[in-house]
Amino acid sequence: MSNQELVKILYEMAVLLEIKEVAFKPQAYERAAYSIESFGEDVAEIYKKGGLKALEDIPGVGQGIAERIEEYIKTGRIADYEKLKKEFPVDISGLMEIEGVGPKMVKKLYQELGIKNASELEMAAKAGKLEKLEGLGEKSEERILKSISFLRQSQGRFVLGFILPTVRKIVDSLRALPEVKRAEFAGSIRRMQETVGDLDILVISNKPSKVMDFFMKMPEVQEIIAKGQTKTSVRLNIGMDADVRVLPPESFGAALQYFTGDKYHNIALREIAIKKGYKLNEYGLFKGEKLIAGKTEEEIYKKLGMELMEPELRTNHGEIEAALTGKLPKLIGYDDLKGDLQVQTDWTDGENSIKEMAEAAKKQGLEYILITDHTKSLAMTGGLDEKKLMKQMVEIDKVQKQVSGIKILKGSEVNINKDGTLDIDEETLAKLDVVGAAVHSNFNMPEADMTARIIRAMENPNVDILFHPTGRIIKRREPYKLDMDKVIKAAKRTKTVLEIDAFPDRLDLKDEHARKAVGDGVKLAIDSDAHSAGHFKFLEFGIAQARRGWAEKKDVINTRPWEEMLRSLK
DNA sequence: GCCGTTTTCGGCCCGACTGTTTTCAGTCG
Questions:
Q1: What is chain A's mean pLDDT, rounded?
Q2: Strand B bases with any atom < 7 A from protein Cβ
Q3: Most CB within 10 Å of its CB: which of A23, A24, A310, A401?
Q4: Which regions of chain A are under pLDDT 50?
């Protein structure tokens, strides 16, 4: 059993209870599902170690849900879920991800038309059956058809690193309008999540309609979805939806807060507001009718007894408690990296020479890079063998003399063989400044074998860093099966550094694993995995990932000058 | 069903927009 399967069941139970119009339980199940989803620890493992009591320590999980999780772990099923499912034998998850379809719609579709999944819904919509239902019309039908086809082509989420340049361009054009006093993006993009669903832009202006008119006519806009006094929604030509909201200055901080925190952060905040006798919404913090804070985020958090926290933290994973008690982490900053420890060149699958990469890195403000070309068993990249590695070291010395202001370190991205040995001999590895090791083959091993394989590599005294530890590629490849708890423990024991690969669709380690590693005193490296001179800018996304993992400057070895960084390695 | 520096019982986040029901339910974030 995996967390993922359990989370899906809990979410579906929430929807099914909502359909049955049961009060309050849906939110309870939803909260538990969300909590487990982002918990980062295997629930089965927690249960094995601490039983029911340990399950109940998970936020949002109480006695009832803990017992159902136990039932699921023991029997592979949850009787209540199956009972609900019998009443509504429909593909809840598949239907709910269609925009505009909620619990009530699922119910109506099934009861009136017997629709059980997205493709049946599509057929019914195409046959014009939906518009005959009460409460639905021609437009609802069109909208559903559109949502289904959109979902099919986009899978709904966008990789942050790939869309952020467009987002910044849009916001900059809005800022350039004379009617616009201020414009900021909020939402999951401001939180710098690895993938994002849509774009929220907040604007201060006295002339909302002018801003809206300009926005709707931007070249990046494909079609208008909704248009109102203060809010306009469009679909951008990159496939993503974008909302613009225009606000008065006195509410801007409140709106920024409201649209930046994730759902659960905001719920928690509003509950704290209520307890203090206030009301919090996107227009401000109110005592009765009176606005008492709203101009800046800081004053809102302050009135609620909290320090201002970085947007990346606002997901209700302990940041509120930390802010209330003055224990927020001092996150690594976006300018804190001095070096990049994973850089490919044209010696293997990179596009640029050692010199070009060094110069590009210097331009990016870095003080050093580590050259880490692939090794021989990765034949498709022309991986280096011992002889070529020695030759490359000579070449690096040569290039070093031709460039100034940037230190070029000698390294390698060594393949971890199936048995945990490496594909380069120890003698050669020992000559390198830094060795990164990575899995590039046999991805489909059983968890225990893969874990043992990686730990064996970490035990090698020459291996300094484990590169992209889980191998996942967002939207394309699942992580390999790996016991991260064991890997983190092994990293601690062997003093191996874990990498956050900053490539936009890798971001590997994930935030929750980074947080766990940092919590256990394991050091991180944030690397671009650059394959061309333009890739150093991806470091930003690795830093964001580290920040979402509560990492501080001291936790990341390449925030240090290169001599000091080298001394800190095993 | 969960949770507690008001509470172990009695609460549980809030507003905009759409479509279509002419007064509001459903969905979304």
A1: 91
A2: 1-3, 6, 11-21, 25-29
A3: A310
A4: none
